[in-house]
Amino acid sequence: GVLASExxxxxxxxxxxxxxxxDALGQVAAVLRELPDRTRTIFVLYRLExxxxxxxxxxxxxxxxxxxxxxxxxxxxxxxxxxxxx
Length: 86
Known about the structure:
Elements: H1 15-34, H2 37-48, H3 53-60, H4 64-82
């Protein structure tokens, strides 16, 4: 069957990769906890929920440029804390 195919384009997840991924996710979660509530929520809505900036702005009653400022603040903290790692 398809699942038995060796050439399905999916790399096997070795334990080291799984642990590295969990570690990176834990670091991102720790940085997110440092952000003010609104900044964190806007970042999550945009980056993880793929919500449009315009829709976030409407939901919070703020401008799209204010949404951009929240996103820049979140990204700046990520870069500062994680050294630019994804």
